[in-house]
Automatic annotation (TrEMBL):
One Pfam family per UniProt: BPD_transp_1
Tagged with keyword Amino-acid biosynthesis: no
GO cellular component assignments: plasma membrane
An annotated GO BP: transmembrane transport
Bilayer topology annotation: Multi-pass membrane protein
Name recorded for this polypeptide: Maltose transporter permease
PANTHER family: INNER MEMBRANE ABC TRANSPORTER PERMEASE PROTEIN YCJP, MALTOSE TRANSPORT SYSTEM PERMEASE-RELATED
Keywords assigned: Cell membrane, Membrane, Plasmid, Transmembrane, Transmembrane helix, Transport
Length: 275
């Protein structure tokens, strides 16, 4: 019985893993099949002929690279804004005492609980009044509004784990407040900053609703809306190009997550325990 139990647990675990990863595997396999093999019945689990023609068509005959560049600019800029504002905000909430500090922290979390669709019309009217509607800047600001609250709480949890005595010792030794933050707090906070940056980048990279409503120009569309409008219509779906585009859209996130997954999981753990 003692030997049977771990075997059963392993079988159940691997069955769940295969079930979850099946859509990803099928997406990769489909992207490598020739056009004549896509709709064959029964379907082939392994391509009889591996081809990269769909990737070549995607890169040479469609504006995929333009959408890819827009997504990189959008996700990177949003991440920089959110991490900078979240770090300063978390430092203020943890290290300084002032009236309404806890209320302010709760209000920030409350904004994260609101559905994204509630903020779309106010944000759109604000972008129009600022004269930045239908631009990447409007999307960066919109993404910052829904990513910043959770990032602030995540960084606050990490900041609370840094002993205040370390900063006080630096101040006693003659360091300025900024110098103590740079030399003492920042190195200790770096794992939290990396996990927050990863969370924000993934959130912004995959966001669809705001991009659909706030941007209607192809020149500034990110991958999520650009690929959908390019390959999916009311009468036809380009399955081969769609699968190739999905693989290429997923690739940057998979690579980044593979190298930095420990920071992301530790960040979620810290938020869950201390938040």
């Amino acid at each position: 019985m003692k030997l049977l139990r771990p075997i059963l647990l392993n079988l159940i675990t691997w069955s769940i893993v295969l079930l979850i990863s099946f859509p990803l595997l099928w997406m990769i396999v489909t992207s490598l099949k020739p056009q004549t093999e896509l709709f064959r019945i029964p379907p082939t689990w392994i391509p009889e002929t591996v081809t990269f023609e769909h990737y070549w068509r995607l890169l040479s005959e469609t504006p995929f690279l333009l959408y890819f560049r827009n997504s990189v600019v959008l996700a990177t800029s949003t991440t920089i804004f959110v991490v900078a504002l979240g770090t300063l905000g978390a430092y203020s909430l943890v290290r300084f005492t002032y009236r309404g500090r806890e209320t302010l922290a709760m209000l920030v979390l409350f904004t994260y609980l609101l559905p994204s669709v509630v903020l779309i019309i106010p944000l759109y009217l604000m972008m129009v009044s600022f004269g930045i509607s239908n631009t990447l800047v409007s999307l960066i600001l919109a993404h910052t509004t829904f990513a910043l609250p959770y990032a602030l709480w995540l960084l606050r949890s990490f900041m609370e784990g840094i002993p205040e005595d370390l900063e006080n010792a630096a101040l006693v030794d003659g360091a300025s407040r900024i110098g103590a933050f740079r030399d003492v707090i920042f190195p200790q906070l770096l794992p939290g900053i990396i996990s927050t940056a990863l969370f924000t980048f993934i959130l912004s990279w995959n966001e669809y609703l705001y991009a659909l409503v706030l941007v209607n120009s192809e020149s500034v569309a990110p991958l999520t809306t650009g690929v959908m409008s390019m390959l999916i219509s009311a009468f036809n779906i380009e399955w081969s190009l769609l699968m190739a585009a999905s693989v290429m859209m997923s690739l940057p996130l998979i690579v980044v997550f593979a190298f930095l997954q420990s920071y992301l999981t530790s960040g979620f753990g810290a938020g869950g325990v201390k938040g």
